[in-house]
Amino acid sequence: MLVSFASYHLWLDWRDFKDWLACQFIDYEPGIHISQVQMQSGLTGINTLRIYNPIKQGFDQDPEGAFIREWVPELRHLPDDLIHEPWKLPASEQSRTGCQLGQDYPYPIVDHKEAVKYARARFSELRKTDPYWDSARDVLRKHGSRKSQESRNRPKRPRKRSDGQTELPLASE
């Protein structure tokens, strides 16, 4: 979600934050993480854009705001229904909760709906160009599956085990 926000809401170049992000991981592996940052930033041309809504993700993943209450003490006393949208806190409640917007906690730096609208429009225009599709084909040719579509959908043959029994592959194999 962090990469999505940085890329589609703030329009930061993935190369500008990849190293900082790498330092945040305890299991950083360049071969995995760099390609994931590129994919999440919409650079591969072969994946669906993943523009996450940080507010929705907050409510879905942490409805009571336990993480926010732990790590953002300014918001600790906000009610659950506003913990992921503190800018909606009425002025009358700000002093009671100890969170004066613009003073104790900043106003939003970007409007999610406008950012998503802009990102989708930009990528829609980009996807109408030949260089975009040329690049996407190159990525797919280099990194995509080598199996044909037909062979990926073909059921696997039962295998004979060394004891003569037939082994049927599970559906997930």
UniProtKB/TrEMBL annotation:
What's the name of the protein? Answer: Deoxyribodipyrimidine photo-lyase
Sorted alphabetically, which keywords does the UniProt record give? FAD, Flavoprotein, Lyase
Required cofactor(s): FAD
Spell out the molecular function terms from Gene Ontology. deoxyribodipyrimidine photo-lyase activity; DNA binding; FAD binding
* Positions with biased composition (Basic and acidic residues): 134-153
Source organism (scientific name): Spiribacter salinus
Q: Give the matching PANTHER family.
A: CRYPTOCHROME, SI:CH1073-390K14.1
Keyword Flavoprotein attributed: yes
Could you read off the lineage of the organism from its UniProt record?
Answer: Bacteria, Pseudomonadati, Pseudomonadota, Gammaproteobacteria, Chromatiales
Cell membrane: is it a keyword of this entry?
A: no
A Gene Ontology cellular component where this protein is annotated is: cytoplasm
